[in-house]
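[DERIVE STRUCTURE TOKENS]
===
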Amino acid sequence: MKNLLKEAYEDSDCRAPIFFLITHSVNILDMVTDFHQKRMSGGGASKLQYFSLGKGLEEMVEEKMAKAAQNGDWIILENLHLVEDWLPAFEEKMSKWKGSELNSKFRMWITCVPVDNFPASILEKSIKVAL
């Protein structure tokens, strides 16, 4: 599993989130937290922020995403499937990620269970990992 995270990280960049297609019983928080700590032990100062998504959190998550992108932090968005109504707004935010507003250290880790009608552009821009 550690090699899988490392490969996904190396394939990603600040514009390409790592998208975990998971079963309901999989929790990536501990795996990503451990990986983040090991990556940052060499002097990196980025923070890891975690959000378990649900209705009503979208605006706050958008603000945290924008700050994380500027600061070069890592952010985990768990349960993206629970905010299907927000996915078009999330998709739009991703499409606007450009140059100076993104710190090259920024990484986004996303989890989602398989759902119908998931926006293809989110998947196309992401590094996909099935667990």
